[in-house]
Amino acid sequence: MLRILFWVFQASVLAWIAAEVILQVRQWRQGGKAKTTEWRSFGVIVLSIVVGNLLAGQAVRRVHALHIAVPYAALLVPAILLLWLGAGYRLWAIHTLGRFFRGVVHVQEGHEVVRSGPYRHLRHPSYAGALLAVVGIGLIWANVASWALFVGCALAGVLYRIRVEERVLHDGLGAEYADYAAHTRRLVPGIW
Length: 192
Hints:
Elements: H1 2-30, E1 34-38, H2 40-62, H3 72-97, E2 105-108, H4 125-138, H5 144-173, H6 175-183
Antiparallel strand pairs: 1-2
Helix pairs in contact: 1-3, 2-5, 3-4, 4-5
C-alpha cells in the first residue's frame, strides 16, 4: 500500500508540473500583447522552492528530534489530498483568468479585473492553491523542521510575488483594481 501511495504522490506532483507548463505555454500564445511585464518575481518563486527543498533535505538529515513519528502512509494520504486540492484550486483560478493569465506578472492590452470564480473571494487564489499544494508536498519530509523550511521558503517567494503583482496591477489597472483590492482579501479569506 505504501508503495502505491508513494507512486500516486509522485505521479500527482508530475501531473501538476505538466499541467502548469501546458497551461502557461497555451496562455502565453493566446494572451494579448503585454503593456507591462515583470519577470524577476517568477525567478524568486523558483529560487525559493529550490532553496526550501535544499534546506528541508538538510533538516531531515540533521534535526532528528523533529521527525514525525507516524506511519509514512499517514502522511502520504493528507499530502496527496492537499496537493490535489491546492493544485485543483490553482488550476481553477488560472482557467477563470483565461487570456489574462501568464506565468509572469503583466498587464496586457484590454486587461480587466476578473471578479468571478475564486476571484470573488481572493485577489490571488492561484497562489493560495499553490501554497496549499506546497503544504501537502512538505509533509513527505516527515520532519517538522523540514516542512517549516520548505513551506516557509515557498511562502516568502509567493509573498514577494504578490507585492510585485499588486504594484503592477494597481499601476496598470488603476481605480478598477483599487476598488477590487479594497473589497477582496489577498490570500486568506476574511484575514489577509
